[in-house]
């Protein structure tokens, strides 16, 4: 909000200057470009305490002006770096809870994804097992039917032998029937 109002104030001032100079069609970016070009040929003279044309300075004065400008840029850079570090620290403090929550949610999502992948693998294994079992079931049933039939015939045979032995009423005959089986 403050930035928007400041930008609007700057634009209004620029519009007033354009109207005053009779250059309503000139844009703010055109003025900024012209100011950059003009500044390239200028240097701040510490002795004169003002901005002068670079060509008006001696070589030593131009070097001193360049060094002073470099020091100014370095101090501005250091100040801005310090401000950025403070802003970063404040942002980290403000978002620490969100970062922890995001980490926890990320871990939960990864865990759920791993479980889903495991369940998918198990499902595929069970589908393959079912297909194998479905293919083998008729042969197993046939074998079981044959085994049941064999057991029934054996049981019938034993029942008949028991009846025959019972008819003789001899204990020895009953023992003989079951020891033969």
TrEMBL record:
Q: Per its UniProt record, what InterPro entries does this chain match?
A: CDC5L/Cef1 (IPR047242)
Lineage top rank: taxon: Eukaryota
Provide the GO biological process annotations: mRNA splicing, via spliceosome
GO cellular component entries: Prp19 complex; spliceosomal complex
Which GO MF term does the entry hold, naming one?
DNA binding
Q: Give yes or no: UniProt keyword Transferase.
A: no
Q: Which UniProt keywords apply?
A: Coiled coil, DNA-binding, Nucleus
Where do the coiled-coil regions begin and end?
141-168
PANTHER family assigned? CELL DIVISION CYCLE 5-LIKE PROTEIN
State the protein's name: Uncharacterized protein
**Source species:** Prasinoderma singulare
């Amino acid at each position: 909000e403050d930035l928007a109002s400041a930008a609007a104030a700057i634009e209004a001032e620029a519009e007033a200057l354009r109207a005053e100079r009779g250059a309503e069609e000139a844009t703010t970016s055109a003025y900024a470009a012209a100011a950059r070009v003009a500044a390239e040929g200028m240097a701040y003279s510490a002795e004169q305490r003002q901005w002068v044309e670079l060509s008006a300075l001696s070589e030593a004065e131009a070097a001193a002006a360049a060094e002073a400008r470099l020091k100014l840029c370095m101090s501005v850079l250091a100040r801005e770096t310090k401000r950025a570090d403070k802003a970063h620290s404040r942002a980290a403090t403000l978002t620490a809870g969100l970062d922890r929550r995001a980490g926890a949610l990320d871990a939960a999502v990864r865990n759920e994804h791993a479980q889903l992948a495991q369940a998918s693998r198990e499902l595929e294994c069970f589908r393959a097992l079912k297909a194998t079992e479905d293919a083998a079931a008729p042969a197993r049933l046939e074998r079981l039917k044959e085994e049941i039939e064999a057991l029934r015939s054996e049981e019938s045979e034993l029942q008949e032998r028991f009846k025959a032995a019972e008819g003789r009423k001899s204990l020895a005959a009953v023992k003989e029937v079951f020891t033969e089986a």
